[in-house]
Amino acid sequence: MLPSTSTLPLFSPQVVHRRISTTANGVAFAVPSAAAHIGGFLSKKPYTAPSWASELSLVPSHNFTLGQFPTPIHKWNLPNLPKDTEVWIKRDDLAGMELSGNKVRKLEFLMADAVAQGADCVITVGGIQSNHCRATAVAAKYVNLDCHMILVTSRLIVDEDPGLVGNLLVERLLGAHIDLVSKGEFTRIGSVALTNLLKKRLLEKERKPYVIPGGGSNSLGNWGYIEAIREIEQQIQLSGDVQFDDIVVACGSGGTVAGLALGSRLSSLKTKVHGFSVCYGPQYFYDNVQGHIDGLQSGLKSHDIVRIEDAKGLGYAMNTPEELKFVKDIAGATGIVLDPVYSGKAAYGMLKDMSNNPTKWEGRKVLFVHTGGLLGLYDKVDQLSSLAGSWSRMDLEELVHPKMAPVRCSD
C-alpha cells in the first residue's frame, strides 16, 4: 500500500492566491495578486521581467491574468524513494478549472500579444485530445477571440464526428472551429504548413488570425515558465526552510522545460532540471530547447541547463498497462490524479530512474511540476475500467424487511 500524501503546504493557505514580494533587505511579505482584486482576473496588465531575466530578448510588455497563481507546493510521499530523498509537487493542475495545467502560463503572454496585434481569432494545432488546444479555446473566449484548431487523429476516424470525449467536449461547447487531419497528413505536410494554409483561408475571409504553435511553445510562450521560476523562488523565500535540488517535468513540446531550465539557471534557484520526454527522443528535445533559448538570446547551451530522459514508452498518448496501473495506484494512495499522457509518464519515468539509479537521487529534494491535463483520462476509460475501484448495489434489506421485535406474553 502506498503512503498517503502529506498536505503540508510550502506556504500558508492565507497567501495561496497572493503575489509574494520582498523589501530591500530581503524580508518576504505578501501582497494581493491581480486576480485577487475585483476586475483583476482576465485583465491585461504591464509585465516586468525578473531582474535576472531582464537581459533576455523579447521581454513581453503585457500579459493577461488568466490563471490562479501561485499554485501550491506540498510534500508528495511517493513509495520506495531512495534514502533521504524527498519529493514535493507543484500543483499547476490547479491553475484554474478549464485552463488548468501548464498551458495557461504560456497563454497569459500569447493572448496579450494576439490582442495587441489586433487579432480577431487564433489558430493552433495539437492531437485529438490536446490539453493545449482546449486551454487555448478557453483563453480565446476569455479575451473575445474565436479559436480555430487543427486536431490530429487516426486515419480510420479522420472523416468521422470526433465525439465529445474529454477535451473535445469543452472545445465544442465553446464553439471552437475544428479541422481534422490524419497522423499521416500531419507528418507529411507539417504543422507550419497546415497552420499557414488555415491562416491563408481566414485572411481571404478578411479575418485577422494569430498563430499559436503547438503547446504554446515559442520564445514568447517560454516566458510563462520563466515567470513560474520567479514564483517558485518567492515561495521558497517565504517558506524559508525548503530548498530544491531538482525540478522534474514532462516534456511534450519543449516550451515548459525550456522556460524552467533557463529560469533556474539565471535565477537564485540553480536547480537541476530534468525533462521526461513523452514523445520523440532526448536529442530532439535538446535541439528543441536550444532553439527556444536561442530565440531569447540567452547564450546558453541546452545540454548545460537540462537533462532529458526518455519516457515516451509506446509513443505519444499511448500507454502500457503498467503506466495506467501506476496512475491508478498513485491516485488511490495519495489523492493526486496524474494525466496519462504527460505527468503520468513523467512521474513513472522519474520513479523508475530512482529505482534503477538510487545513488543519483539519494538525499535530494525534488520538485515535480504537475502540468495538468486530467480531461485526457476520459479518453482512456476503456483501458482504465479494469483498474478502477469496485462498486456494489447498496443492501437495503434491513429497511425493506426490518426484523420484528420479539413478542412478550403477558399474564
From TrEMBL:
Which residue numbers delimit the Tryptophan synthase beta chain-like PALP domain?
A: 65-372
Indicate where the modification N6-(pyridoxal phosphate)lysine is found in the sequence.
Answer: K103
Q: Name one GO cellular component term.
A: mitochondrion
Cellular localisation = Mitochondrion
- Active site annotated at which positions? S130 (nucleophile)
- Name the keywords, alphabetized: Lyase, Mitochondrion, Pyridoxal phosphate, Transit peptide
- Provide the catalytic activity annotation: D-cysteine + H2O = hydrogen sulfide + pyruvate + NH4(+) + H(+)
Enzyme Commission no = 4.4.1.15
Q: Cross-referenced InterPro entries, in alphabetical order?
A: ACCD_DCysDesulf, D-Cys_desShydrase, TrpB-like_PALP, TrpB-like_PALP_sf
What is the protein's major site of localization? mitochondrion
Q: Which domain of life is it from?
A: Eukaryota
Question: What GO molecular function annotation could you give as one example from this UniProt entry?
Answer: D-cysteine desulfhydrase activity
Question: Which coenzymes or cofactors are required?
Answer: pyridoxal 5'-phosphate
Return the similarity comment: Belongs to the ACC deaminase/D-cysteine desulfhydrase family.
Q: Kindly provide the name given to this protein in its UniProt entry.
A: D-cysteine desulfhydrase
